Structure to design on (539 residues):
């Protein structure tokens, strides 16, 4: 006896109504989910509004100026993630190297950077390097600090990526008579990069937010513009809300692309 | 073949082109190969058979130093490499091994095509980068061999879009593009769905007919009987018996070979 005959329904009718129920449950969930967001965010805005702490005039006049800093934020993040990726690749090759000096150097780099706060590293570039006679343009200093920091974290990601390339790939290349260097550059690294691209995307999104730390250098990016203007006009709450909102929107946009990228890599040609 | 069972090489084969002497291999305390010798002549097809764990795959991998032997030496087409496990990473040894590998094409159980390159890309990579021939020439050679394995129309596909049998045939073309003196197969059909085994075995048989020198580790006994000039039966890290298939597979004299074949016949009947 099939299930359907119990309720006097055919099997296809049962399957159809089950599918309909599942669909209804899904859209109901989504509706409540979105409603929760709208209500909570709306309540927050109204609360701030009625207490009189949000200054619409300020938002109207300062908004575009603060938004202008987003370009610098994204620019710094893109350039920094690029150099961080190069550093990470070199670092990872060092970490898997059989040469004790190269391996030691790479390990020290990772340990040092991961053992100290990013803000300390930013200050180091800003305050300590000039004492050594090295004075970098602020934006360059910010990029140096961020790339240096992220490069260390990404070194470990790259190392894992290289080690995730199946052993057989290296063996096939060896059997074809390829020398070590070529096996690395032509066979292992291209596959490792594919493996770590989703992780680089994640790091880029973190970078967008961490790049705010370079405001202490005086780089005219998002947070710098918001905080200076907010203090000058005595409207820090409004200014910081604008900055936070812009960071939020930026990460939502890049997360969307990151997710699509990740799905594409998962499908990929591996 | 050395040993008391040698009945002389088949008439179509030529000079000895692969020689292995006294190959021993330890994995830690584990003595996997206990002194294996092998001679392979030009155009000869040698099949290594035996139970899993008998050392046949390790021996094959020792022949091109994918496993560094603990003792012994291998010579292929006049290039000799001696086991040197203490200096396995020295530049001189690595270069010697590389010269040896250039003379032997290797086929793997799980194909090991490069997933980030097309079928054609897989075939021209080493000829261009290692042998230093022009892209045009490498492409022409690759197309010739892809055509030989019946996959010319798949040359622009990535491995992920090929079936297991097609992957292994591309891998064969890739190996042939290096113009090796001998092709070595490590259980080339073990990872394949049963219905895909035939196409790979047919390709190998064609190569054998054309006079390709081959050393094959296999579990396909029927294939060994049909296509081998010489069958080498291994057990416990030594060669127990070797000779023409009709002798080793039908009238084995070694007790271990007899036991192995009895079990195999029981399984397949």
């Amino acid at each position: 006896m099939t299930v359907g005959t119990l309720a006097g329904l055919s099997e296809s009718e049962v399957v159809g109504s089950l599918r309909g129920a599942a669909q209804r449950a899904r859209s109901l969930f989504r509706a409540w989910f979105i409603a929760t967001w709208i209500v909570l965010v709306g309540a927050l805005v109204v609360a701030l509004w009625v207490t009189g702490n949000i200054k619409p005039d300020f938002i109207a006049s300062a908004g575009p100026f603060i938004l202008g800093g987003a370009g610098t934020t994204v620019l710094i993040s893109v350039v920094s993630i690029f150099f961080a990726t190069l550093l990470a690749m070199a670092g990872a090759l060092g970490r898997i190297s059989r040469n004790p000096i190269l391996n030691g150097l790479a390990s020290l780099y990772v340990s040092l950077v991961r053992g100290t706060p990013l803000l300390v590293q930013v200050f180091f570039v800003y305050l300590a390097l000039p004492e050594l006679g090295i004075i970098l343009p602020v934006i360059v200093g910010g990029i140096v600090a961020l790339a240096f920091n992220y490069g260390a974290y990404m070194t470990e990601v790259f190392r894992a990526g290289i080690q995730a390339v199946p052993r057989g790939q290296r063996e096939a290349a060896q059997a074809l008579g390829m020398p070590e260097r070529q096996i690395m550059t032509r066979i292992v690294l291209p596959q490792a990069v594919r493996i770590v691209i989703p992780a680089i995307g994640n790091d880029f999104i973190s970078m967008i937010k961490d790049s705010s730390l370079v405001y202490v250098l005086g780089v005219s990016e998002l947070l710098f513009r918001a905080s200076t203007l907010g203090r000058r006009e005595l409207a820090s709450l409004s200014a910081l809300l604008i900055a936070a909102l812009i960071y939020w929107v930026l990460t939502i946009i890049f997360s969307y692309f990151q997710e699509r990228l990740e799905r594409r890599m998962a499908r990929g040609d591996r | 073949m050395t040993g008391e069972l040698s009945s002389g090489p088949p008439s179509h084969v030529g000079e000895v082109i692969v020689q292995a002497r006294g190959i021993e291999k330890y994995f830690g305390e584990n003595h996997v190969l206990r002194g294996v010798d092998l001679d392979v002549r030009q155009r000869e097809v040698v099949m290594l058979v035996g139970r899993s764990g008998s050392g046949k795959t390790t021996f094959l991998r020792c022949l091109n130093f994918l496993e560094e032997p603990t003792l012994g030496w291998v010579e292929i087409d006049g290039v000799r490499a001696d086991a040197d496990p203490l200096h396995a990473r020295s530049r001189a040894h690595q270069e010697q091994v590389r010269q040896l590998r250039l003379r032997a094409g290797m086929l793997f159980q799980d194909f090991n095509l490069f997933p980030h390159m097309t079928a054609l890309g897989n075939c021209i990579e080493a000829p261009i980068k290692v042998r230093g021939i022009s892209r045009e020439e490498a492409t022409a050679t690759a197309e010739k061999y892809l055509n030989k394995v019946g996959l010319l129309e798949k040359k622009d596909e990535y491995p992920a879009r090929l079936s297991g049998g097609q992957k292994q045939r591309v891998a064969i073309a890739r190996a042939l593009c290096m113009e090796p003196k001998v092709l070595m197969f490590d259980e080339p059909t073990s990872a394949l769905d049963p219905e895909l085994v035939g196409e790979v075995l047919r390709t190998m048989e064609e190569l054998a007919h054309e006079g390709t020198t081959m050393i094959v580790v296999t579990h396909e006994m029927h294939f060994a009987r049909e296509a081998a000039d010489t069958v080498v039966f291994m057990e416990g890290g030594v060669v127990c018996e070797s000779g023409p298939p009709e002798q080793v597979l039908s009238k084995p004299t070694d007790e271990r070979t007899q036991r192995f074949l009895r079990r195999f016949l029981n399984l397949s009947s």
